Amino acid sequence: MKKRALVICPGRGTYNATELGYLKTHHAARQDIIAAVDAVRTAKGQTTVSQLDAADKYAPSVHMTGDNASALIYACAMSDFAAIDREQYDIVAVTGNSMGWYLALACAGIVDLAGGARLVNNMGGVMHQHGAGGQIVWSICDENWNVQKDKLLFINNLIIESSIISEVSIHVSIRLGGMIVFAADEAGLKWLMERLPKDDRFPLRLMHHAAFHSPLLNHVVPIARAGNPLSDFGAGEIPAIDGQGRIWSPRAFSREAIYDYTLGAQLTESYDFTRAVQVAAAEFAPDTVIVLGPGTTLGAPTVQALIASGWRGLSGKADFQARQQEELMLISMGISEQRAWALS
């Protein structure tokens, strides 16, 4: 009997030095997917993902910029998605974090492979050229991955306080399981780094990231719409859950509505990855959650979101790890030992 699987797509920042060669190592046989992405890049005179992935050395100034990282991550994630054994798993829903929404659209069949490659590549370029501000990550959970209510209250007060200071612009960009990602202008980033309590490696300024999912990117909306046609969007084949926790069921929505969200509110309003995961888990009752590669950073936020909602009675990190030893509740395809469980 097939297992019901929720698939989660990664966002920016997941193709790092340890992922160099991901396509060559895991997907040498998936030249159809890689070639489709390469074709989009070649048509624009850009370095292909094949070349980027095959580089001798990882260069942050090359591999981490939006115009290159986005397409690389898309090629890796879509290849991982295609590699999932459909005899073992019935994919009941897809969602993603931030840029992962574009990938989720492609996995769901709302845009096709080439359309998704164009969308990701175009938006990566738009953000690289026209992005403003930046992002800072701050942890809001304890060592057992339970969200701390006092930190949530602190954030709410911080946002209120910043709203009355005309010199700074600060917003909640992403609710990411046990982390909050802030979007801010340069003055706001400096203010946040001074105000946020320091704990381990947090607060952390994300390099090569703009103020995604905030009003600071209002100016990007018309540019994004000009470069991405409505005709690329279709009816879909698998339910997709967006950054507001809304379910887009196949043939049950207008393409105008999903286009407006994708190239509108998704760019300028807070992205609630936590809610997306919780809604998907509650509504589609998966047996397994599969996080696509590249990278391994999205596994913890996914589990933290599930812990916060008490999915299957999960009470914390220790509880999850114990159960994971008995049967994989979450398969991270960026982890070599785990990806084998998703393959035929």
Order of neighbouring strands in the sheet with most strands: 8-7-2-1-10-11
State the end-to-end distance.
15 Å
- The class by helix and strand makeup works out as alpha/beta
Beta-strand share of residues = 5-15%
Largest sheet: 6 strands, mixed
Q: What is the average per-residue confidence, as pLDDT, rounded to a whole number?
A: 96
The H/E string reads EHHHHHEHHEHEEHEHEEHEHEHHEH
Number of distinct beta strands: 11
Basic shape: globular
Structural notes for this entry:
The chain is of the alpha/beta class and 344 residues long. The chain contains 15 helices and 11 strands. Helix 2 (31-43) crosses helix 7 and helix 6 runs antiparallel to helix 7 (113-130). The mean pLDDT is 96.
Secondary structure: elements and pairs:
Blueprint: E1 3-9, H1 22-26, H2 31-43, H3 49-53, H4 60-63, H5 66-83, E2 89-96, H6 100-107, H7 113-130, E3 134-139, H8 149-163, E4 170-176, E5 179-184, H9 186-195, E6 204-206, H10 220-227, E7 240-241, E8 247-248, H11 255-268, E9 271-272, H12 273-284, E10 288-291, H13 299-308, H14 317-326, E11 330-332, H15 336-339
Parallel strand pairs: 1-2, 1-10, 2-7, 4-9, 10-11
Antiparallel strand pairs: 3-5, 3-6, 4-5, 7-8
Helix pairs in contact: 2-5, 2-7, 5-7, 6-7, 7-10, 10-11, 12-13
Give keywords.
344 residues; alpha/beta; 6-stranded mixed β-sheet; 11 strands; 45% helix; globular
Compact description:
With 344 residues, this protein is an alpha/beta fold. The protein is 45% helix and 15% strand.
